[in-house]
Specification:
The protein is an alpha/beta fold and about 575 residues long. About 30% of the residues lie in helices and about 15% in strands. It has 17 helices and 18 strands. It has helices at about 60-70, 90-100, 110-115, 125-130, 135-140, 210-215, 270-280, 290-300, 315-325, 340-345, 390-395, 435-440, 455-465, 470-480, 485-510, 535-540, 570-585, and strands spanning about 10, 45-50, 80-85, 105-110, 145-150, 160-170, 260, 310, 330-335, 350-355, 375-380, 405, 430-435, 450, 515, 525-530, 545-550, 560-565. The strands form three sheets. The protein has a seven-stranded mixed beta sheet with strand order 8-14-13-12-11-9-10, sandwiched between helices. Strands 1-4-3-2-6-5 form a six-stranded mixed beta sheet. A five-stranded mixed beta sheet has the order 7-17-18-16-15. Helix 10 links the parallel strand 9 (about 330-335) and strand 10. Helix 1 (about 60-70) packs across helix 2, helix 8 runs parallel beside helix 14 and helix 9 packs parallel to helix 10 (about 340-345). The model is unreliable at about 1-45, about 170-190 and about 190-235 (pLDDT under 50).
Length: about 575
C-alpha cells in the first residue's frame, strides 16, 4: 500500500485505437455500459498491474490478464484498467492488449511505485527501476486488496507479469484512476524477467526515504570525498563531463592525428586474433553460446565458472553493478575512469568521492574511505594517474557488508600483473573487472568480464540482457586467455614499460617549463601537469598529435594531460612537437 494515492497517467495509444474504447475482439464482450461493473461482492472493480519486456506480444499479455482475472473469480468486464510503470507507456504489445480488453493503460512513475510495499519482491525490477514488483505495486498503488499475486505469462522466456487488485468504488469516482497526461516511453523489465538496460530516476532504496538521500551531508575527506554528480537523467554534475573519453580527441577532424589520447595498445589486434574472430563469423546464424569462453576465463584465473561473468566490455559491468546491487552509500576513489560514477548516477545513486592528492602521488589511504561506504570503486593501475596501488592496501578496504570493486582493465599491461587481485577468492565482497579491449585492440568488439563471488555474479547476470556478448567477442575472449596469448601479453607489458621509461625521461627534459610527471607511472599511459596545458594541447593538435585532456577527471583541473605510451619513434616525434608547442604558447 502507499500513504497517498498517486496521480496516474494514461498511456498514449496508436491513432484509431483509443485505449478506453470498448473491445472489439473476443477478449471481452462489447458492453461498455457494464465495464468495471460491480461484482457479487458489492461496488468494486479490478485493476491489473502489468510488468512487461520490450517487444512483448499483445496476445501474451491478454492471455495472462484473462487467466489472472478468472483466478480472481471475476469477468474481464469487471476490469477497469491495466496499470504499469510510465516507461512502458508506449509499449505496442501492452497498448494493443489494453485495446483488445477495452481498458486504458494507466501509468505511474518508478518513484511512485517504489513507495508501495509488495508481498512478492523480485531483484530484477528493483535493480532496474527501484520497485521490487512493477505488477504488484501498480495494482496496489491506488489502494484496495491484492486478490491475485504476481503471475508470469506462459511465454519462453516469460515477457510479462501481472497481479490483480480489487479496488472499492467505480472508475471515475473518488479512489478510482483519473485521466492525465501520458508519460514518456522507454524500456524496463517485467518482474522476475531478465532486466534490460533501462535507466532509472533517483529511486530511494528500502530503508532510505527520499529526504534521507536528498539531504545527506556531502562527504569531505582530504583524500577528499565530494558529492558532485553526473549522468543522463540521473544526478547531474555541473563541474565534470564524466562522459568525455579519449576517443573524443580522435574523432572527426582528429581522425588523422597521431593518437596519444586513447589507451588502446598500438598496432592491435594482431593478425592471429583477427583470424580467430573472422573464423567465428560462420556461426552468426546461431545465438551466442558463452560457455566455452567463460570456462576459459575461469581457468585462466584458477576460478570456478560460477565466479565469472562475461560482459560487453568493462563499461557494461559498471552499469550492471550500478543497477543490480542494492547499495546505500557508494563511493568512487578519484581521479579514475569516470564511467563507474556515471553509471551509478544514471541509476539514481548519490555518489561520494574520495579525491586522492597529487602531493601524495595519488596514493590510496584506506582511512580516507568512509566507514559506512557499502560500495567502493577503485582502479588499479588507475586511469589516468598510472598509479599501481599495492594489493594489500586495496585489500584493507574490504569488510563485511561492503562491495569492493577493483577495475583492473590495465593490469595485463603491468609486467607479471603484480598487485593483481583477480583470482582471489579470500577477500570479502571483492569484485574484479577486467577488459580485453586495451591490450588486444578490441574496443570496437566490446569484451570484458567480472570476477566475483557466485551470489554476486548471479545478481549481475539477472540484470544482464539475453546474449549480451556476441559470438565474435566470445571467440576473442577465449583466444585472449590461452597460454600463447598470455605470453604475448606478458612480452607486450615489458615492452610498454621500456617505452614508458623512454617517454618519461623525455618529458622530464621539460621541467624548466613547469612540466611534472605524476608517478611513478606503472600503466600504459602517464599523467603530466604543466602550465597552459589547454593551450599546449590545442597547439599539439595543430602539429598533428592528440592527447587526452585531464580536467574531466574529478580531482584534476585544466593543467593536467594524459599521454598514452607509444613506441620510441612515435614518442621522439611527439617530444619534438611538444617542444614546439611549449615555445608557441609561452606568450
Amino acid at each position: 500500500m502507499t500513504d497517498a494515492a498517486a496521480a496516474p497517467a494514461h498511456a498514449p495509444v496508436p491513432s484509431g485505437s483509443p485505449a478506453a474504447a470498448p473491445a472489439t475482439s473476443d477478449a471481452v464482450d462489447a458492453c461498455p455500459e457494464t465495464h468495471g461493473s460491480v461484482g457479487g461482492d458489492g461496488v468494486a472493480f479490478l485493476v491489473v498491474g502489468v510488468g512487461a519486456s520490450t517487444g512483448v506480444p499483445a496476445a501474451e499479455v491478454v492471455e495472462l490478464v484473462e487467466n489472472a482475472v478468472r483466478e480472481a473469480g471475476r469477468s474481464v468486464r469487471d476490469l477497469a484498467e491495466l496499470a504499469t510503470v510510465d516507461v512502458r507507456a508506449g509499449e505496442p504489445g501492452l497498448v494493443e492488449a489494453a485495446r483488445r480488453l477495452g481498458v486504458p493503460v494507466v501509468t505511474y512513475s518508478a518513484r511512485q511505485l517504489a513507495g508501495v510495499r509488495v508481498p512478492h519482491p523480485s531483484d530484477a525490477p528493483f535493480a532496474a527501476l527501484g520497485t521490487a514488483s512493477v505488477a504488484e505495486a501498480a495494482a496496489l498503488i491506488g489502494g484496495g486488496e491484492l486478490v491475485v499475486p504476481k503471475r508470469r505469462s506462459a511465454g519462453t522466456p516469460a515477457r510479462a507479469t501481472c497481479a490483480v487488485a480489487r479496488r472499492p468504488g467505480r472508475p471515475g469516482l473518488p479512489g478510482a484512476p483519473a485521466e492525465s497526461a501520458h508519460a514518456e516511453s522507454a524500456a524496463a523489465p517485467p518482474d522476475d524477467v531478465a532486466a534490460t538496460s533501462a535507466s532509472r530516476t533517483d529511486i530511494p532504496h528500502p530503508g532510505i526515504t527520499l529526504t534521507d538521500r536528498e539531504t545527506r551531508t556531502p562527504m569531505h575527506t582530504d583524500g577528499q570525498a565530494d558529492e558532485h554528480a553526473d549522468g543522463r537523467g540521473g544526478v547531474p554534475d555541473p563541474t565534470h563531463d564524466l562522459r568525455h573519453h579519449g576517443d573524443a580527441e580522435t574523432r572527426d577532424d582528429g581522425s588523422a592525428l597521431v593518437d596519444l589520447a586513447v589507451n588502446v595498445r598500438a598496432d592491435t589486434p594482431p593478425r592471429w586474433l583477427l583470424e580467430r574472430v573472422a573464423a567465428s563469423l560462420g556461426g552468426l546464424a546461431a545465438y551466442p553460446d558463452g560457455r566455452a569462453a567463460r570456462a576459459a576465463v575461469a581457468a585462466r584465473h584458477g576460478l570456478p565458472v560460477e565466479r565469472v561473468l562475461l560482459t560487453a566490455g568493462a563499461a557494461e559491468a559498471f552499469v550492471l553493478l550500478a543497477r543490480a546491487l542494492r547499495v546505500r552509500r557508494p563511493v568512487v576513489v578519484h581521479p579514475q575512469f569516470t564511467e563507474p560514477e556515471a553509471a551509478l548516477r544514471d541509476a539514481g545513486h548519490h555518489v561520494g568521492r574520495v579525491l586522492l592528492r597529487a602531493r601524495d602521488g595519488f596514493r590510496l589511504d584506506p582511512a580516507a574511505v568512509p566507514d559506512d561506504a557499502d560500495l567502493v570503486v577503485i582502479g588499479n593501475p588507475t586511469n589516468p594517474t598510472s598509479v599501481l596501488h599495492p594489493a594489500d592496501t586495496i585489500r584493507r578496504l574490504a569488510r563485511a557488508g561492503r562491495t569492493l570493486v577493483v577495475d583492473e582493465a590495465f593490469m595485463d599491461a603491468v609486467p607479471g600483473e603484480r598487485e593483481a587481485l583477480a583470482g582471489r577468492a579470500d577477500v570479502p565482497g571483492l569484485v574484479v573487472l577486467r577488459s580485453l579491449t586495451k591490450t588486444w585492440g578490441l574496443a570496437g568488439l566490446r569484451i570484458g568480464y567480472v570476477l566475483a563471488a557466485p551470489e554476486t555474479i548471479a545478481e549481475l547476470e539477472r540484470a544482464q540482457p539475453l546474449w549480451p556478448v556476441s559470438t565474435p567477442a566470445l571467440a576473442a575472449a577465449q583466444a585472449c586467455v590461452e597460454p600463447q596469448a598470455l605470453a604475448e601479453a606478458g612480452h607486450a607489458a615489458h615492452r610498454i614499460a621500456a617505452d614508458r621509461a623512454h617517454l618519461v625521461a623525455g618529458l622530464e627534459e621539460f621541467a624548466s617549463d613547469g612540466l611534472r610527471v605524476a608517478g611513478p607511472a606503472q600503466g600504459p599511459f602517464v599523467l603530466v601537469r604543466l602550465p597552459r596545458a589547454a593551450a599546449v594541447r590545442r597547439q599539439l593538435r595543430v602539429l598533428g598529435f592528440a592527447v587526452r585532456r585531464g580536467d574531466t577527471f574529478p580531482g584534476l583541473d585544466e593543467e593536467w594531460l594524459r599521454l598514452a605510451v607509444r613506441d620510441r619513434v612515435t614518442v621522439n616525434r611527439f617530444l619534438q612537437a611538444l617542444d614546439q608547442a611549449l615555445a608557441l604558447t609561452r606568450g
